[in-house]
Design a protein that fits this description.
Two copies of one chain form a homodimer. Chain A contains 25 helices and 16 strands. By secondary structure, chain A is of the alpha/beta class. Chain A folds into three domains: 276 residues, Zn peptidases (Aminopeptidase, 3-Layer(aba) Sandwich), CATH 3.40.630; 227 residues, 3-Layer(bba) Sandwich (Glucose Oxidase, domain 1); 185 residues, Transferrin receptor-like, dimerisation domain (Transcription Elongation Factor S-II, Chain A, Up-down Bundle). In chain A, the strands form three sheets. In chain A, strands 1, 2, 4, 5, 6, 8, 9, 10, 11, 12, 13 and 14 form a twelve-stranded mixed β-sheet that branches. Chain A is globular, with a radius of gyration of 27 Å. Chains A and B meet through α15, α20 and α21 of A and α15, α20 and α21 of B.
């Protein structure tokens, strides 16, 4: 009707007096007819009024009273309390248990043995004003989960972030880590990459420290005076090789049920091969100061008042680690509101409940929003609201060690999930600041719409508008030239990974942040006291998160047509494609340049004999690759996305039947699944999405079009050609799906459009 | 003849057996006929064998025995010793005295008075192993010359480098320096800019400290363990407003002779208006740590183990400075070898002899090379060599306070210098590493030729080739695509300034460095002990410098045609022109963007209310400018440069008469002079070169096409249009000169070419 009014050329002023039902200035609502949208908006308005900051605060206080890591007594209590909350909101709730391998430390020794003696403290002290940090008996000590057992004494070498490019720099300086213990700083990659790459280069142990420039005094006052990392603060964390596969290392690909067949621990390829320990900057400083050898390159230097050197000189350290490799029960809380008309379509939402210690920010700040959404939805049900599709809320256990709860659940239910999964919405903590989202690009338009409907508590503009302004001020030209603000691609680091990258469920990961700096991540200082002093102190962003997440869940649950839009997916694919073709060009040019410079003797002539640099190695020239299949598939997808969008234009005012739209929806919810590559990615079959994966050498950081991109990065040209074929096939499947969906949508709407 | 042989198509192999005189594989020698070049090369070979590292070492030891700053007893001794050396080499030598204003400290007090008490040490302690650093009675204390007297107590504000862009950041954070004392770190601009800009913003005092990240422990071991700045080390230095005019502040534009009319000190606009003091990082740390207020932006943070904050909070400091503003005698050493055929053409070479304290690196490492060149030229004279043109070697006094010796000399002799000056070659210290050069771009080809004829002592390739390799490895594409390696444009910071930018003499400034890092600049630790342990320890780069400089002097002194080449000048002008047209575009775009963002409310929406940022101010849109006169003049210059080069192609084998070439030479030596702008640059008439000036807000850093560029940077659009006119006129004069020179050269060579 709105479209019709426009086509009649009625003056805009007149429209304001039309009844609400036909007002054309209602913002669009993806997937809803005008009539459905009106009803939806009324329920959403009721929903948005419910989430209460005071309740979030109290729930956080309650869940962070004691350490609640995987396997802890209080962790089980938290799971049961969360279950009981869902039950009290009227949800059908259960705890689903798995049994997973989870090592905890028995012995931790780190000593400098030469040229001087120093024994690392490896302990986070109690600071005055925080009532939970003294719970020493229940706290997990500072360690990296899935480090190997080991007892090594070896020279120490500083490797910067410990990524492959850093080893190229070391090699040029004639420094090998073979037989050495490396010390890397946090940052520049996910932590698990550091020992993995160190091991590949022959190291026998690894230390990872938090440099004060990054989240300590360099950034601001340290806790408890300010939010940043105090000198003895340590970032715990997993070093399981999650870019190969996450979840229980003994049960890849299947749920870790009692009956599951388990690998021998020695055969679990994701367990780190060398001992690894995270340390504080107070413990790191004497070790780094003991290094001699070349001065570290400028970009490698941190904030300690020392000359950063590469080592080793006479610096030797003794590292001894021993773990209790026990099977540990894991408690996922699974709650559902059954769908009224489409019960076999699942709209899912999750946040983990386990922390490394008391875990207020990570993860409870996200979980308290999720609970308020659940309470609010329960309230709506009491007022008569019914979701068409089944809504499933999850509170995952064991996310910190390795996305255990979500991964085992997805693996256990993968067949059913691939049939029924419509959407997975993830959060993993929350803070003060700006909205951010990543996920399936067919949902980008949807994200832009929903974030237009929630108000930022600080500035009173829509949270989407605020984020756009941040991008604009930050110099992102698209912020004022592109219709939709781009969402990120997802790598890993939270529970979205099994849903998106293994099961192929359309997925989003959202949250607020950017004004909530601090240095308490994965330490005993991530407490209720810290969070309520330094982050979203009044839980107004908790409320905003509950509003955005709740609206997303409600809209997907009740949409006439699932809210996918393929134009942005197509444009994004073209962007990635441009990146990888450019990557081949720049790689080829770099190789040619280095070979020419070697032939010219440039490295030898430029070398400082007192600080010699080995020249880089000559390399085989990069071949051209046949990108044509990708370009063709991408063009096809663009055309079909436009066709779908044209058909979609008639939906709002059509009388398309639910049955007709159900056929379209059945296709749309397969939109990510058809992009799964049979057999998965090279070296890691568990990861199957053709567009998104955590980088094999970046960890959490995403690699888009990962098969092709990483093959080019690794200069595996034959593999790159193969992966182009697989990626092109995935895009062709997507394109065919969109074409079919467009055809069905044309049929559904054309016959029934209001004349 | 060589050209002729090629045109006859003789096989290349045959050429090798021709007599040396006609060998075509001799490298070219700009400005010499084949016959002259052969003679020149023989003399140059003799010359290159003479400079002796052992003598340079001994001369450095001799001249750094005691502090030798302007006005010091030992400074006068050094001048007299240098004079006597020249005399012993057979040069006609004299000392030329001027009397200049040179303040030295009487009172220096710096105290933190709130929130805690701290009194700055302001003293560089004696460290064990250096025999000269204990000469406390003769050392100038740590201070900035031409600071104002003052006694102020005021809040302290950290201003990063203290350049205008830093104040924009402060303003956005709501921080004013009005009535405050600023503390800036060294770097990011010449030091004198910091108090000048602070004063413009209302500050009442300024401190400048050396951050340890830049030249202290962040870079390597500190002296005496290594070459870097120890915690109490201080960089002395001038803060006279040299970008307005250098030299004696009381005698702008005229030599500071006894008879010269002098300004009242209060009318000397180059004297700083507020008290300024340089301090060590040991003295700076308690002051910086006392600041509260917003945390400094990441790029503003240094290497001290503190949270860098902007202040002021309750931090207040007391700064009291009092100086002895005395007239001081200055002793320039001027030595000459009279030209045999062209005595009224001056080929000049200089390096200063005054240091801030013992000054081994700065300036003696350059002066010892100059002395060895002089000795070697004296030797050649004894063997029968005669320069055609007069060679004048200078050892300048008072460079450190304000280029006093060279500026007063140039001002005193400017009329004669503009008639006779052919070339000025400057050095100002030397170190281990790579050759570098800056200066008149008509001499770029010449630099490339000479540096092809001197061998690098470390790698045994030509020093020019080595530099090219450094650029190549550093990613400078021109290093393998451009015939000549680019030379830098000159800003200021050494004695070339009055020659090039005031008198318009074709000028080069050269030296070696880049492998000689350290942190002793302008401190008591710049000593013979430091230099011989950490820089060019065996004086092999001293020898290389003497070889390059000596060859340059010899070639200009004896060239048939002065070695200018205008193609590179033209190409360089086009490059600068492209930069300034692009600068207008980007400035216009930035203004439009900010205005649009303001209109969109982007700054308000993106703002963090807990760390508020003021939005930038709306600005008037940038007008288009008429660059056509510049583009036309530049095209004209390109054509005429090509015409000159075509005529030049016939020189080597021509029998052009000296008289005919003298007419061309008379034009060539005016090549920079015709680019002087009558009346000079806006706000600073002393600076007249249309292409090169120190930046009004960068200090030493060059601004090319400064009139137009700075007007655009300052958004003074009307001024920019005016300056375009003046610059275009300068380029038109240059173009006309080149056209005339080409015409005369065609006449000189065409009639006489070997058939």
């Amino acid at each position: 009707m709105a479209t019709l009014l426009r086509s009649l050329g009625l003056p805009v002023l007149l429209l304001a007096v039309l009844p609400a039902a036909t007002r054309v200035d209602d913002p669009p609502m993806r997937g809803f007819t005008t009539a459905s949208a009106r009803i939806e908006r009324e329920w959403e308005a009721k929903f948005k009024a419910i989430p209460a900051p005071a309740r979030m605060r109290e729930a956080m206080r309650r869940m962070t009273l004691r350490p609640h890591h995987l396997g802890s007594p209080f962790g089980k209590e938290v799971a049961e309390w969360v279950r009981d909350q869902f039950i009290s909101y009227g949800w059908d709730t259960k705890i689903e248990r798995f049994d997973v391998l989870f090592p905890t430390p028995k012995v931790r020794v780190l000593e400098l043995v030469s040229p001087t003696k120093f024994t690392a403290k490896l302990d986070e002290p109690v600071l005055a004003d925080d009532p939970t940090m003294n719970q020493k008996a229940e706290q997990l000590p500072t360690y990296n989960a899935y480090s190997a057992d080991g007892d090594v004494t070896a020279p120490l070498v500083y490797v910067n972030y410990g990524v492959p490019a850093d080893y190229e720099q070391l090699e040029r300086r004639g420094i090998s880590v073979k037989g050495a213990i490396v010390i890397a700083r946090y940052g520049g990659s996910w932590r698990g990459i550091k020992p993995k790459v160190a091991y590949e280069h022959g190291a026998v142990g690894a230390l990872i420290y938090s440099d004060p420039r990054d989240d300590g005094f360099g950034e601001g006052d340290v806790y408890p005076a300010g939010p940043y990392r105090p000198k003895d603060g340590v970032q715990r964390g997993s070093v399981l090789d999650m870019p190969t596969y996450p979840g229980d290392p003994l049960t890849p690909g299947v749920g870790a049920t009692p009956a599951a067949k388990r690998l021998d621990r020695k055969d679990a390829i994701t367990i780190m091969k060398i001992p690894v320990l995270p340390i504080s900057y107070a413990d790191a400083q004497p070790l780094l100061a003991a290094l001699s050898g070349p001065v570290a390159p400028p970009a490698w230097r941190g904030g300690l008042p020392i000359t950063y050197r590469l080592g080793p000189g006479s610096a030797r350290v003794h590292l001894k680690l021993e773990f209790d490799w026990k099977q540990t029960p894991l408690y996922n809380v699974i709650a559902q509101l059954k769908g009224s008309t489409n019960p076999d379509e699942w709209v899912m939402r999750g946040n983990h409940h386990d922390g490394w210690v008391n875990g207020a920010e990570d993860p409870i700040s996200g979980l308290v929003a999720e609970l308020e959404e659940a309470r609010a939805l329960g309230e709506l049900v009491k007022q008569g609201w019914r979701p068409k599709r089944t809504i499933i809320y999850a509170a995952w256990d064991g996310e910190e060690p390795s996305l255990l709860g979500s991964t085992e659940w997805v693996e256990e239910h993968v067949t059913e999930l691939r049939q029924k999964g419509v959407f997975y919405l993830n959060t993993d903590g929350n803070g003060r600041g700006f909205f951010g989202a990543g996920g399936s690009h067919a949902l980008e338009r949807f994200v832009n719409e929903v974030t237009g409907d929630v108000i930022d508590p600080e500035t009173k503009v829509a949270v989407g508008k605020r984020r756009r302004s941040v991008e604009d001020v930050g110099g992102n030209e698209e912020a004022h030239t592109r219709k939709d603000l781009r969402i990120d691609a997802l790598g890993s680091g939270s529970d979205f990974t099994p849903f998106l990258q293994h099961a192929g469920v359309p997925t989003l990961n959202i949250g607020f942040g950017g004004e909530d700096g601090g240095g308490i991540y994965h330490s005993i200082y991530d407490s209720f006291a810290w969070y309520t002093r330094f982050s979203d102190t009044s839980f107004v962003y908790g409320k905003a998160l509950a509003q955005v997440a709740g609206l997303m869940v409600m809209r997907v649950a009740n949409a006439d047509l699932l809210p996918a839009e393929f134009g942005n997916l197509s444009e994004t694919s073209k962007k990635y494609l441009k990146e990888i073709t450019t990557l081949r060009e720049t790689t080829a040019k770099e190789i040619d340049e280095i070979n020419r410079q070697l032939a010219d003797g440039a490295f030898a002539h430029a070398d400082d004999p007192q600080h010699p640099l080995q020249p880089p190695k000559a390399q085989a020239a990069a071949p051209h690759l046949n990108f044509a299949p990708l370009l063709n598939a991408s063009d096809e997808l663009e055309k079909n996305a436009a066709r779908f969008e044209k058909a979609y234009g008639s939906l709002a005012t059509s009388a398309a039947t639910a049955a007709a739209l159900a056929q379209v929806n059945a296709l749309i919810r397969q939109g990510d699944q058809v992009m799964l590559i049979p057999g998965g990615l090279p070296k890691r079959p568990w990861y199957q999405h053709a567009l998104y994966a955590p980088g094999y050498y970046t960890g959490y950081g995403v690699k888009t079009m990962p098969g092709v991109r990483e093959a080019i990065e690794q200069k595996e040209w034959k593999l790159a050609e193969e992966q182009i074929g697989k990626l092109a096939a995935a895009l062709e499947r997507e394109s065919a799906l969109v074409a079919k969906a467009a055809q069905l949508l044309e049929a559904a709407t054309a016959a029934s459009a209001v004349p």
